[in-house]
Amino acid sequence: MDVQMWTFIIVGLTFALYIGIAIWARAGSTKEFYIAGGGVPPIANGMATAADWMSAASFISMAGLISFTGYDGSVYLMGWTGGYVLLALLLAPYLRKFGKFTVPDFIGDRYYSNVARTVAVACAIIVSFTYVAGQMRGVGVVFSRFLEVDINIGVMIGMAIVFFYAVMGGMRGITYTQVAQYCVLIFAYMVPAIFISLAMTGNIIPQLGFGGTAADGTYLLDKLDGLHTELGFAAYTSGTKSMIDVFCITFALMVGTAGLPHVIVRFFTVPKVRDARRSAGWALIFIAILYTSAPAIAVFARTNMINTVADKNYSEMPAWVSNWEKTGLLTWEDKNGDGKVQYYNDKNTEFVAGIANTKGWKGNELKIDRDIMVLANPEIANLPAWVIALVAAGGLAAALSTAAGLLLVISTAISRDLIKMQIKPNISEKGELMWARIGAVFAVLVAGYFGINPPGFVAATVALAFGLAAASFFPAIVLGVFDKRMNREGAIAGMVVGISLMLFYMLKYKLQYFGGGTAADWWLGISPEGFGTIAMVVNMVVSIVISRMTAPPPAHVQEIVENIRIPSGAGVAQDH
Predict the structure, then answer these.
(1) Listed range (68-77, 93-102, 543-552) with the worst mean pLDDT
(2) Contacting residues for 247 by C-beta, under 8 A, at least 6 apart
(3) Distance from C-alpha of 510 to C-alpha of 515, rounded to nearest angstrom
(4) Range of 460's domain?
(5) Can you give 369-404 as a three-state secondary structure string?
(6) Segment 356-398, tens digit of pLDDT
(7) Lowest CB count within 10 Å: 96, 195, 269, 532, which one?
């Protein structure tokens, strides 16, 4: 069977599994819709959290980004994994002990203000829609290549699947669907990695093969450094980003992870505070399997790709090149008419001048969307068709699992934090559940629009969402847990200033609004992906200064803050 037939079979089976789980685990109450009834076992919650957090950016785009940027791409590894540790240690147990359903719910009650709740709802929606755009883009990329449909049609198919199990099952359906999706995505990620590591280095463990030697006896990373410099790129193991930008991106991803509402809500689904800590530990183990493999996959893909295409005749290109050309995500233009694929670094002017003189080169002829590298990796390495199809199913599982979690955040923000807590406090259980499902429908439609009209490639879009979460939620949550003196005026001012500053910088330098700007114009040399750190610091300073200039929180609020940090009796947490 060919790749397309295998893809139809494997993707069809996984979709049938997800839908079956959604029907079995459908929500019958708001508590089941919002937090899966609060009874998810720690190991299952850890697996679901890993699937929820490891999005299309982790599965599809991260290794692709590392394969193109080399050392510079390591900021994503450090930031995302470090952020999860920060979340598990600083926030998860305390938020679970507080016992609310959502992040805006926590902020509204902790800061005794519906204005704070509304600001948090707006921040949650902005962060979630920015994040979900990257997921839907990932779904479209997979469908366009492996099922040979238009990217926009692929996004719509993904919308339909997520719509079914998010609207019907709520958090209960999503949780057990994510357990299945984690199994699919990690199997799909590791199988080709093991095959390629064995073929290239003779080592069955990709993490060890990454630092091993190739068939010719040279270290794999040394070989890739040589290939890079021959093509005018910086050595793969050297960095080009400034130290301040590396620090800011890493830190923004860390504190952004600790402020992501769709990840935080997972810790409300376990029975006890102790279980929140346990599920965080399990999730870190499950996440580490993929994250420690990503650098190896990046090196394997980059080495094989350069060896396959650079300075080779286009007529001799393998089938994967033409397959990806059909999607528009890989293009070749024979600028000097010699029939060869000239792949060099256009930005290295000194190198370009030398190549132009010796080879009559007129510019780089090959353009590759970095989002395709993980998906194309098995094809480049000539792995069996079923492995290629499996990777497609894994990419879809990663994108859909995170999309579902984000859509639920938007849904609950509308139904609980706006309708139930502010507009219509006396709404019935049935009415609230109806609004939760209406919110999910709205969220799916908007997510589909952003998937069809994405603001950038997957990892960059997702990195901006982390910056927005860092700029808005992280200070409000951390100070809400650890600073009794933090009051509503400080929290509201901090969130508004932080997210406004981050949105301005993102729109100006990433989407070229407000007059645009280039990298040379970045403030302090900090990229939009790293600016969340600056916006977060500004948020925290504004919050603390304003809170000290205004009245302290009521005594009962200060007592709550004191109590949620006390370990004794931590085995029991209130539900409301």
Answers:
(1) 93-102
(2) 530, 533
(3) 11
(4) 3-301+377-563
(5) CHHHHHHHHHHHCCCCHHHHHHHHHHHHHHHHHHHH
(6) 666 666 778 889 888 788 888 999 888 999 999 999 899 888 8
(7) 195
